[in-house]
Amino acid sequence: MIKGDAFAQRMDRPMAETLADIAILGGGASGAVTAANLMRKGFLGGLAIVSRESAVGQGIAYGTREMCHLLNVRASNMSAFADTPTDFVDWLTASGCEVEGLAQTFQPRAVYGRYVRDRLEQAMHTSACRFTPIHGEAVGISRGEDGIRIELANGDSIVAKKVVLALGNLAPYAPRECQGLLGSDGWVPIPWADGALDRVEETDDVLILGTGLTMVDLVLSLRSQGHRGRIYARSRHGLMPQRHAPAGASPVEPPKTVKELIDGCREAGQGWRAVIDSIRASTPHLWGELSWKERQRLLWRLMPYWNVARHRMPPEVADAIEGLVERGTLDLGAGTVISATETNGWIWVQFNSGPVRVKHFINATGPSCNWKQAKVPLVESAVLNGLAELDPLGQGVLVDEEGRTDPTGEILAIGPICRGCRLETTAMPEIRVQADRAAELLLA
Ligand SMILES: Cc1cc2nc3c(=O)[nH]c(=O)nc-3n(C[C@H](O)[C@H](O)[C@H](O)COP(=O)(O)OP(=O)(O)OC[C@H]3O[C@@H](n4cnc5c(N)ncnc54)[C@H](O)[C@@H]3O)c2cc1C
What we know:
CATH superfamily of the largest domain: FAD/NAD(P)-binding domain
Number of helices: 16
Shape: globular
Helix content: 25-40%
Strand content: 15-25%
Oligomer: single chain
Number of domains: 3
Bound molecules: flavin-adenine dinucleotide
Distance between the termini: 32 Å
CATH architecture of the largest domain: 3-Layer(bba) Sandwich
CATH class of the largest domain: Alpha Beta
């Protein structure tokens, strides 16, 4: 059972300064799973979690209410806990889910959000630690005599001995060429915002910028709200995510070099997915071996191709999307935005591949990975005060293998903000391992 009121009541409590042994900044799945791990491992001190949203544990990915938004990882690999691999499937079963082959299914992300929240609630009820969820935004961080001081946007503060940065995904970045549309009714800069698609009428034509999994979500949302108009989707390369195989393939031996990876995929034929998946655990190590220049080159040149092979659509979603492409309802293509203007309620977007005229234009370029460009106040403050350093590509903060951002080990980072150092760090199979390890280090 989800007992959301418990969070809401605690979050309304007025606080000026909170003292905590550990403060977790960010209340998405990463923050919630770290907190749950600490409690499960017997932490008895004061634990504060700062969350911009009132619902801890959901974040962008699992805060969706749309049941058509499915996980892109099979249930069997979505446990929140590294030491209990079947936990999500067990929870589904205990919740009354009786689907055949449950472990191989792709569950709705909203259900996963309930699972994470439920596991956190469960840990809270059995733990003797002093847990303080704080609703707000952390905007400053510095080291003082009394500990690490965290400033919140409302003027409150927290003083903690140790801190976990679990800040999650950045909002998508809108290309410079779209800046002129700011304030326009038809322009949707953040696709995850509540009511983002409310203005779209049944027969309106829609243009989606981006052809990845965010585009897939949006197309499914539009169809489920009864939209029947034309949907255009454009991205630099026009590549759509590949589909998952009907059932999980048997694991294969991971290749040791990029050449071996490519050769392995070629030789594996239809079994290429297993080869790609096999390097998931060793990706941070392989990535870490590259120079920053090589990483930059790969991010720019290889990432569009890597992303569509690595981040795949569940088969049922792929069937729906491919059906729309075949029927011509979804017009998918390559194109780079050259200009975008609004005239008399129409948005005109000029791509290098030709113009598109629509009523609504949605930015679905996915979470931005550029922390330098995003200028997040908390991260800027951490850098300014010597508690963390941005990596040379601005893809996140510099962390060691354990996730420490500075030599004292008092500040750890987990999840998407470690992308520059780890690359493979944004999804639950990696986050649960990081959260487990972070809890161990915090308890040591
Ligand atoms: C649309 C989408 C779908 C996804 N689907 C899957 C999937 O199916 N399977 C999978 O394994 N992974 C998926 N992912 C990857 C996803 O990144 C992780 O699974 C996981 O949700 C990351 O959780 P997080 O807590 O790190 O990040 P987030 O979900 O982004 O949560 C971070 C939270 O921290 C808060 N926050 C940030 N800064 C501050 C601050 N300064 N003060 C207070 N609060 C702050 C944010 O408001 C947010 O609530 C998906 C990602 C997206 C964007």
